[in-house]
Design goal:
The chain is an alpha/beta fold. The protein is built from twelve helices and 18 strands. The chain is globular, with a radius of gyration of 21 Å. The structure holds flavin-adenine dinucleotide.
């Protein structure tokens, strides 16, 4: 199996387990789930737990965890993508707040389920530090905290830390301070994925691998191995959705790349601090995300080549040398003590980005099609909430989850090419330019704000 290309998380476990059997032929089910990432697997899990008699099958083009769920940074984050105003337009401030609180609880729900089933996934909930690396980032963080207060979040949800308080936890070169939120856990992404897949199989759900769905039609998932006729088909294909007939412009596949170091020597950790398991990021427009792994490495990721023309996906996870170099340089600048530490592995994956950068979930009973996603870079926890919401929608059990403002949203489609390519590349190159300006001037750049407004990202 191509575990090297799938990334370090697989390699750390000795590679992917043997492939599962493909769909044997045309079949019937109550629910056919397309995609064996976190969204598909959590949906299967909650559906089976709610109604054990349901016949649920999972159809996966490659292997379970081939997508972003097997390649991510391992932040189980209680935050989610997109500007609050988009959710507020549907549910008002109360609706947004209900959704935010539910997402915070979702981090604990993930921890609860894996504890219940004895899944060992290195999950530790020590929170999230967003580090300001210059005055501009510091000012933006202050604005974020004020915005959070206006939305009804308090200091137990998100608060500022001075440079001194940050240094007591982790020493990041040049840091001006940080924000801290307790609502984020760290996990080993593939341990979580494999544990979930095994759990779902133990509940009696077959996962058919090497089974590409070519089209999702009302009450049917079509594959070259035969169609699955089902009361419900759940689309859980995230960054690969554009490959499905009729969905070319629904979600843009955007790349994110990661590198991971060898285990750091105790003397290096001594210089860095970071004795907790907080996940860490910076406040740049083109930000990076880091985790300290259970075996004492640092994994750091960021946007590499953000997007390929015509929504093509780089399924094999190859990473451009320039991307590896820029992540390595960022690691060294944040932690000079890592200058001699070897980088052991690099990989990339694709995430799904909707036109308005906001997540959505829905189920259409007439066509028997449900879907969830558009998580951008924050889908590890959100996929769990998606699974529970899809359960409630499919078994027609109205609940507080089905009233949240991400339910029933239908984001606009992306522009056709070449506009799509030009817009996304434009956004990321302007963000990088804004970051460079902010590093020089120490003040928030107007360019960054303009790009935020034009792209609708914040
Ligand atoms: C490098 C990277 C780092 C990230 N870091 C974080 C992070 O730290 N925290 C966070 O919250 N989020 C992070 N994300 C995002 C997060 O990983 C995703 O949002 C989440 O895993 C999405 O899960 P999913 O199941 O919806 O999609 P995926 O995991 O992508 O699964 C989709 C599955 O569908 C299959 N599939 C696609 N098309 C078909 C088809 N036609 N037929 C059958 N099967 C098909 C694919 O092979 C794949 O297995 C990161 C993403 C990347 C790429």
């Amino acid at each position: 199996m191509r575990t090297g290309e799938l990334g370090f998380w697989w390699r750390s476990l000795g590679g992917a387990p043997g492939p599962r059997a493909p769909l044997p032929g045309p079949t019937e089910a109550d629910v056919a789930i397309v995609g064996a990432g976190y969204t598909g697997l959590w949906s299967a899990y909650y559906l089976k737990r709610a109604q054990p008699s349901l016949r649920v099958v999972v159809l996966e083009r490659e292997v379970a965890g081939f997508g972003a769920s097997g390649r991510n940074g391992g932040w189980v984050s209680g935050f989610f993508s997109g500007p609050s105003r988009v959710y507020e337009r549907r549910g008002g401030r109360d609706g947004f707040l209900a959704m935010q609180r539910t997402m915070f609880e979702t981090v604990d729900e993930v921890a609860r389920v894996i504890a219940e089933h004895g899944i060992e996934a290195d999950l530790v909930k020590d929170g999230h530090l967003s580090v300001a690396l210059n005055g501009a980032q510091r000012q933006r963080q202050r604005e974020e905290v004020s915005h959070a207060r206006r939305l009804g979040l308090d200091e137990h949800d998100l608060r500022e830390l001075s440079a001194e308080l940050l240094a007591a936890r982790v020493r990041v070169a040049g840091a001006r301070g940080a924000t801290f939120s307790p609502h984020v856990a760290r996990v080993h992404p593939v341990k979580l994925l494999l544990g979930l897949a095994a759990l779902v199989e133990a509940l009696g759900v077959p996962i058919y691998e090497d089974t590409a769905v070519t089209e999702i039609a009302p009450h049917r998932a079509l594959t070259r191995r035969g169609a699955v006729a089902a009361r419900w088909v759940v689309r859980a294909t995230e960054g690969y959705t554009a490959d499905l007939r009729g969905l070319k412009r629904a979600l843009v596949p955007m790349n994110s790349s990661m590198i991971i170091t060898e285990p750091l020597a105790p003397a290096v950790w001594e210089q860095i601090g970071w004795s907790g398991r907080e996940v860490l990021g910076d406040g740049a427009h083109a930000y990076v995300y880091l985790q300290r792994t259970e075996d004492g490495r640092i994994a750091i990721g960021g946007r590499g080549v953000p997007y390929r023309f015509a929504s093509r996906t780089d399924g094999r996870g190859e990473t451009a040398p320039a991307t590896v170099e820029s992540l390595r340089a960022k690691l060294h600048s944040m932690f000079p003590a890592t200058a001699e530490v070897a980088v052991e592995h690099a990989w990339s994956g694709v995430l799904g980005v909707p036109r308005d950068w906001c997540i959505s979930v829905d189920a259409d009973p007439d066509r028997g099609i449900a879907w969830a996603g558009g998580y951008v870079g924050e889908g590890v926890a959100a996929a769990n909430l998606a699974g529970r919401t899809i359960r409630d929608l499919i078994i027609e059990q109205p609940s507080p989850l089905t009233r949240l403002p991400w339910v029933g949203r239908h984001p606009a489609r992306w522009e056709p090419e070449p506009l799509r390519w030009a817009a996304i590349h434009g956004v990321y190159s302007l963000y990088r330019r804004a970051d460079r300006r902010e590093q020089r001037s120490d003040r928030p750049s107007l360019l960054g704000r303009l790009v935020d407004a034009a792209s609708g990202r914040t």
